[in-house]
Input
Amino acid sequence: MMKLNTYTKSNELFRRALKVVPAGIYGHIGPAEGCAIPTSAFPLFMDHAKGSHFWDVDGNEFIDYMCAYGPNILGYNDPDVDAAAIAQAKKVNCASVAPELLVDFAELMVNTVDMADWAFFAKNGNDATQFATMIAKEKTHRSKLVLVNGFYHGVSPWCQNYGYSGVTDEDLVNNFYVDWNKPEQFERIVKEHPGEIAAFISTPYYHPAMGDSELPAEGYWLKIRKICDENGIVLIFDDVRCGFRLDIAGSDKHFGIKADLECFCKAIANGWNVSAICGTSEMKGAAENIMFTGSYWLSAIPFAAGIACINKMKENNTAASIKAKGIKLQTGLQDVAKSNGFKLKVSGEPAMWFMRLENDYPSAIMHQEWVAECVKRGIFFTSHHNCFINDAITEEDIKQTLDVADEAYKVVKSMHPDFQ
Amino acid sequence: MDNVTKAKINLFAVLRNIEDLCELDKESKELVKNTKLSVSFNVPEVGCAVLIFKGGKCEFIPNESKAGLKLWFNSPEHFNKLMNGENTIPLFINVFKVGFLLKTFTKLAERLSYFLQPKSEDLFNDREFFEINTKLTAFTAFFALCQVGNSDSTGKKVAARMSNSIIACGIPGVLDVYIKVEDHIMTAYKGENKEAIAFMEFADIDFAHNMLSGKESSYAGLGSGKFKVKGVVGVLNEMSKLLNLVSVYLQ
Output
């Protein structure tokens, strides 16, 4: 039996946090939004990280398959990315005029992302999606958006949904919603609202929380592109989560089309905080007209990190590497599940797969128990969100993961003696 | 917030509590110990419910049933006024039973209000009061959230995102409720259900009280382990949105 983690310091810190921080730890990394089920199985605070591992404040070591929910693509504290950031830090980060790196970074994005004629930088993915929708509205002089059910484009009110705290119905009145892989629904909405739709915004493939991922059906994106072209609708790819994981040139290229606007964040700078919107030349004028800025958006350190990260991803063909590692890991997990009498369903792209047990669908309780047992043994998954692979994952990491997965399945089986 | 949903909450969640009040509260139990009568509440746009008093107990039927005393309201607002304690008289059939309405039922309503809308925080120092208040508040919350999901315009949009499921909610050893979602219509029931696929559990009655009264948040509870969830998290997530909307109606 493997050693199980204890989280004394994490829990103590959390009790302190509850007094001075809303929810203790808010957002997707906190135990509530992060669906830590049960919370007692999960670490709450980190101490340090390196490569594919992080250590919590209790000294527990984890192989991390959440990768900070996406930013970690090369490995935590990548030496080349961090060296670039530190070198820039010695010069300047945030000042009263723009850094030279703004131009270098924008040129790199234009030369890397296939659809890009220009680039604009902000901080978070939601800054990018927010700006993209504003560009679309400025370009078309229309007010309505079409989103795909199960979407996540950030936390601005328009990105949330009816009934969400702090969001009013008025925040959502200009949104229409369609189901994934149903271009006929988009077509119908466009027919019913001619000249009203500014943009169709979507992730490159369907990766909702708490549900199977689904790749685009054959011809899906071509159909969407055609509807947009015929009706003057801006096509926005929210590549915040997938970006650089599927294809260094952009996920729209990966799926065979060209978007009008594409949003990047997460993997762009291996965890240094920057996001980007890239656009075609047709969108540039509209982008220029909009007052959209932020205090830290022209900070030089993340630009340096982003340049180093993208160059390294190009050099190492990171997308191909993490795909191969993902396939190896997921095949191994499925084999281990099968050997214990379980059936593990894997969906989505190998670099950022979603997994669940078919045996206890839709309740997912046994899968949640398995994830908890893995976390207690130092393998950090979540049960509600797609996982991520980073390029620092080693053969040894994968072997250890599969060993833990095997023991965890055995524990789950023992908790359900009636399971067949 | 709309009057129809408010009336549905008043009828199917708040009034429903009379059933448990007669079980939990000695004074209420005493009031009904010799009562043998069914009372129906008929509210247009809202529906009908019946309180059956028999054998020293009260049973709540959330739809039409035989009744010896029938109360008719001319609108949801008319019913809401009664439930707010405003001076309102419903139309009724069977004048011989009006004594029950004016005496026993009025006292029951006062007892319910005493527990659900305490005039002083000091009352919570009495453990029995604390527990009855918490149980009735919990029942109200879960039965009310179904009405919000079925009737409120925003609530219906939330319910539209909920897949067919049975969600078990409770405080171990204290109370169990389950909510059935079918074709986006929600119904609450007392008790356990072996087919539940989502679970929401308060560690103890004290935390349940604090969370339901807004003194502690579900987020804090999840972090500390005093509030546990498992199963179909998506449905639980949407339920939390409905519970938020309930607090708007019940404030």
Remarks:
- The domain at 142-250 of chain B is CATH 3.30.1050.10 (Nonspecific Lipid-transfer Protein; Chain A).
